[in-house]
Amino acid sequence: MQCALYDAGLCRSCQWIEQPVPRQLDAKMADLRQLLAGHAVGEWCAPVSGPEQGFRNKAKMVVSGSVEKPLLGMRHRDGTPQDLTACPLYPASFAPVFAALKPFIARAGLTPYNIERRRGELKYLLLTESQLDGGMMLRFVLRSESKLAQLRAALPWLRQQLPQLKVITANIQPVHMAIMEGEQEIYLTADEVLAERFNNVPLWIRPKSFFQTNPTVASALYATARDWVRPLPVRHMWDLFCGVGGFGLHCATPDMRLTGIEISAEAIACATRSAAELGLTNLHFQALDSTRFATAQESAPDLVLVNPPRRGIGEALCDYLSQMAPQFIIYSSCNAQTMAKDIASLANYRIARVQLFDMFPHTAHYEVLTLLVKNG
Binding of [4Fe-4S] cluster: at which residues (predicted)? Predict the structure, then answer.
């Protein structure tokens, strides 16, 4: 992939961009093999990759500069701003949105937040696109509600320019810290969710619900989990750290009982809506802490699927799974180091199958899916 920003030394986020993608995949596979070197792996599946560029379905842009000439992008470590609207990781459909947002910021009088002076209102712009119909969700992250009336008044112009904006919100983040969003979300449109669909499974995206950034590879990840689960004798399954329910909704069958657990109430609302649309009545989603939920149960189901954040599932959940010994565990990880550490704690399990998913091309990061089977 060619990137003018990288060539000019203005952005180094894609640290592996000079390596061909096949070489990147080889390096990631070598890293994964080293992390799991202490285990006998039944099957190493071929890694899955997607497009080299234009694959991101979301942009998280720091707003800097002036109200007349805003910059949308990031800040370097020394505090200098860098416009990233030409980043080749974004699809072509983002360009007209960025182009319209710059004059809109002036129209609405949304002064970019100045970190040094602690003045200004507009901190971030968060944009998400649905692959289903090209609909988009736009979130204005503001320091306060002081410019909310001006934002509302200017919105008709923006929606006329960009009819693809289905969901628009203002998020209030008053803290002087590098925190992406605050607790308060104010909807500026009648629609509050963005419709998406992977592998004929309806998914819904709300402002605060986590959603994968690489739809092509994420679709393959969910489909692979489904294909691994379907042949297994599973009557009851847990989907822990389930997010909007992508894994559970793909793996569930009408005669399977599934419990999905996720700390985010917004994500659970999305998962529940998807299950209803699919007509799956044996799926139950709850907004709870996954570890606390699991460790409070007196027994475990046939299969536990975990998709934790980068910190992994941790000692408490590992101990519980070792003690309760479900027949199968599927571990989806965005941090193979913590996954390897957790698997080392699950001494009564063998690794039946592993597959790497290149969710983040041009970086050292990757996702991995692992099927663990109880010994004996």
Answer: 3, 11, 14, 87
Average pLDDT, rounded, for the chain: 96
Answer yes or no: is 367 a known binding residue: no
What residues act catalytically? Answer: 334
Q: Is 251 annotated as a binding residue?
A: no
pLDDT (0 to 100) of residue 220? 98
| 104 assigned to a ligand binding site | no
Domain with CATH 2.40.50.1070 in the chain: 58-191
CA distances from residue 333 to 192, 221, 288, 305, 355 in whole angstroms, order as listed: 29, 11, 20, 11, 11
Cβ-contact 331, 317 below 8 angstroms: no
**pLDDT 10s digits, 314-366:** 999 999 999 999 999 999 999 999 999 999 999 999 999 999 999 999 999 99
CB atoms within 10 A of CB 331: 24
pLDDT digits (tens, 9 = 90+) for 134-152: 999 999 999 999 999 999 9
Between 1.10.3720.10, 3.40.50.150, 3.30.413.10, 3.40.1130.10, what CATH number should domain 4-52+214-374 receive? 3.40.50.150
